[in-house]
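Bumping with the actual sequence this time:
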Amino acid sequence: MSSDTKLAFAHPSERAEATAPDGSGGLRDRISLRDYVTEVEIGAFQQERGHLQRIKFNVVVEVAPLTGPIDDDVDRILSYDRVTEAIDAELGAERLNLLETLAARVAERILLEPQALRVFVRIEKIDRGPYSLGVEIVREKGGDQHAAVETVEDPHPRVVYLSNEAISSDDLAARIDELSADDAPLIFCVGAGDQPAPQSKAKMAQRRIDLLAIEQNAWVLASRDKRCVVVGTLTELDWAMRNGQICVWAPSKIVLDAVDGPSASPSDALALAAWFASFMKADELVVTGDDDAPSSAVPVRVL
């Protein structure tokens, strides 16, 4: 085996030493996390949904040397706990499909630490067969990329649940005018249409069917008013809220990817809308065309 091939499969600490910027391999201090195994739901394939699998992390962080004595003070160093906390924070943020995405986010979070200069992250799936499948990335702090993190306050939308009667009513446009009269970002939630959805004895299949039934009705609403745009990802929602676009929530991706997903069944669309309002940190949940006020972590107003 050539030295290049051996290095490719070596532990990240060996790669870090071999690829030190000055070529000497020994001038940067490093901390490492080896064989950190945890269980998580991750993966793009359908058989990976609803199941935990073990993944293993190996991380090496090159750090800037301290300018003074350590004095055996844990507060003066980049603690190993900060590495495991970065992993756990990204695993807890949302369900991900790709190890590449997870690795990049872990690396970016670690590089926010003032001492961190360069990070090697290797992640492997160890339950997919008699082998390990994985990715390894290298990220380096450069220029002002991580010197400061600009914090922008998240928008707080008004989430509005529309019944089918409200969607089909002749005053829909006027109702949208009224609800969008101020500057609050507006997101509509709907339930399934009046036609019954197909039924399956498989719980996961039925969940998907019920979510898709809601999305079909979202497109019905969007077809009735061109201001309404069907949106299904957090990135699209964030952009829309910051740019004054009225959204209709297509729930499948956010519900299926949520680490702490809704306890409500998709067939209970009003309860699902209440969960979504809380998830989005909405200022209020407005219920239009339905007399029932759901239990919600945000204020509820019934019209």
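The tokens above came from a reply further down the thread. The beta strands are 29-40, 53-63, 116-125, 133-140, 158-162, 186-190, 228-231, 246-249, 284-288, 300-302.
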